[in-house]
Amino acid sequence: MTSSTPTDERRRRLLADLTPLRRSPAFARLWAGTAIAGIGTQMTTVAVGLEVYEITHSTFAVSLVGVIALVPMIAAGLYGGMLSDAFDRRTVALWSAIVAWLAVALIATHAWLGFHSVALLYVLATVNAVAATVNGASRAAIVPRLVGVDLLPAASALGGIAAGLQVTVGPAVAGVLIAAVGFAPTYTIDVVLFSCAFLGVFTLPRMAPEHGALRPGLSSLVEGARFLRRSRNITMTFVLDIIAMTFGQPRVLFPAIGALVIGGGAVTVGALTAAYAIGALVSSVFSGPLGHVRRQGEAVGWAITVYGGAIALFGVVIAFAHALGGRSGEAFDVGILPALGGAALFLAVAGGADNVSAVFRGTILQAAAPDGMRGRLQGIFTVVVTGGPRVGDLYAGLVVAAGIAYPPIIGGVLIIGLVALLLRLVPSFRRYDARHPHAN
Description:
Blueprint lengths: L5 H9 L4 H5 L1 H32 L2 H28 L2 H24 L5 H30 L4 H30 L1 H20 L15 H12 L2 H16 L6 H8 L3 H21 L10 H28 L13 H32 L2 H31 L5 H19 L1 H4 L10
Helix pairs in contact: 3-4, 3-6, 3-7, 3-8, 4-6, 4-15, 5-6, 5-8, 6-15, 7-8, 7-12, 7-14, 10-13, 10-14, 10-15, 10-16, 11-12, 12-14, 13-14, 13-16
């Protein structure tokens, strides 16, 4: 038997904590299935945006892919959270996954049949987003039961690794596949990969609700709203994320950047999207120290501030490339590498900061909320996480439509200012102590 050296111990403390995977085989299966299925989901997200842009040549039309789904997603998040608190969470997760899979299958069928209906793509993307919102709320509410409150930061960081793999591999592969073989095969791969999600959910143990849980309806919604109203720390996790995603989400600009500013077309779009994910992935892989942070509220504030600064600097790079005349066309050549490299670097920093924020925000929510309330709060959390970027899409689309060329610069500055203001106004969030979690 070999003994551990101090270097080995430091490395283990630096790298992600794998204890949740070892302690809970059910969590390990859920994590693996979600990670694999999510790669296909990200491929389809990129492909739908590119297909809409190819049909319409409109950034605003691309932004509507997310905007149209926003209101149904809000309703689905709220109702799905109530379902997760009132019924077996495993059953809720399984049925919502089936609906999401069927939506992806229909998107693939649309492409194979040679249709070019933007309206149909909007509808199917909305159905997929609604089902994914319900699924995300139920799965997130399941995790504390599988791993325990003490391992929530480690489980959240592992979720960041899964998300990082998804949005690193998925968009990059999508960009290459769309350029090489088109949209239909790209969507079909998602149909196959999504099947892994069923394995992770189907093998979960039964997740029965607490005794006396309210059925979905107005009373359940009011009970959740009352809890959230008096829970300032949990509310702050939502508000801060909305600010970051509304003013600092530049993804809707990627097709135009690839076509008109940097050049490179679909490959550039995939590279920019993947860069953000690489930052998230790296920060998750080296997330060991995050489990020892006690002032988690203050850490959220710093992480989102770094995020805002990185987004603003990304905007500066794009503005500089545009001022130099830009490059148009789908062809990828070495001439675009300086601008693409600078933009990708700051997106990677933004992705890492966003992931650190997500780890702490998710931990605060799950640790401070009682189990009987987790489904409803996770429903709201899922709406914020998935709906916030869509509001950001609308912000970027409207700013560009108004003739303002650099929404990331404006948005990044707004994020820094608003975060500083809110942390000053809500001191209890700054003082939040992970050893003594409390909602208010």
